Amino acid sequence: MSEQVLELVEVDRIHGAGNTAVHALRGLTIRVAAGELVAVMGPSGSGKSTLLNLAGGLDRATAGQVRVAGVELGELAPRDLARLRRRRVGYVFQDFNLIPSLTAAENVALPLELDGVRPRAAREHAVTALSEVGVGELADRLPQDMSGGQQQRVAIARAVVGERSLILADEPTGALDSETGEQVLRLLRERCARGVAALLVTHDAGHAAWADRVVFLRDGAVVDDTGAQAEPESLLGAGA
Ligand SMILES: Nc1ncnc2c1ncn2[C@@H]1O[C@H](COP(=O)(O)OP(=O)(O)OP(=O)(O)O)[C@@H](O)[C@H]1O
């Protein structure tokens, strides 16, 4: 069996207390193995963002366990949690979240430099990561001089650079036209083929079809956990 990169076991997250308490997640169990792309779908308010925040260590569970690469996040001191987040977890958001005043290579190198990697080595890793997602030639360009699809590729390079083993993607194709959106999904699949685990929140069933499994949430609980309709390999082959 493959290595589990992300495990949430019987997780509850209650926001607030008393009469105003909101049970955002209840008894939620999800596992994502190395190499797996898992899509999360569900209506607004079903707990998708709460799930991503817990998986990325940005929020803490009220009950249950959250493990990344075998490490129980609830047991880490804030400083160790911050380090694990920086080293192991990459985020991709709908609005790219690149720093406007930094070039593509500087954006991708930043998490490495924050982690103590020397600037020259960080830049080399960044340029390699950019090349792997097909935008190596844009290394010295600012975000404002790139298309949305190019910016999202840079964001993916930033999410996977270094030793990151988990990508958390929140509607990463939302701001892109459908063709560019599919390229981004193909890229995520390619990263998974290299052993990264990815959790993809999407409202689009066509995009969820790129995943190995689709998890449906309702009222903070998993109501269905199923294989996607299409074979990812056949999608990869189409137009790749
Ligand atoms: N900080 C908070 N304080 C109080 N309630 C919260 C907080 N964050 C989320 N909630 C509530 O928890 C529930 C789950 O919210 P969450 O944002 O995780 O859902 P979602 O599925 O991501 O929704 P959407 O698709 O609209 O982004 C909702 O009822 C929401 O109002």
UniProtKB/TrEMBL annotation:
InterPro entries referenced in this protein's UniProt entry, alphabetically: AAA+_ATPase, ABC_transporter-like_ATP-bd, ABC_transporter-like_CS, ABC_transpr_LolD-like, MacB-like_ATP-bd, P-loop_NTPase
One family name in Pfam for this protein: ABC_tran
SMART domains, A to Z: AAA
Keyword Nucleotide-binding: yes
Gene3D superfamilies xrefs: P-loop containing nucleotide triphosphate hydrolases
UniProt KW keywords: ATP-binding, Nucleotide-binding, Transport
Keyword field contains Transmembrane: no
All residue ranges annotated as the ABC transporter domain in the record: 6-238
PROSITE patterns named in the record: ABC_TRANSPORTER_1, ABC_TRANSPORTER_2
Molecular function terms, GO-annotated: ATP binding
PANTHER family with a match to the protein in the record: ABC TRANSPORTER RELATED, IMPORT ATP-BINDING PROTEIN
Protein name stated in the entry: ABC transporter ATP-binding protein
Source species of the chain: Nocardioides marinquilinus
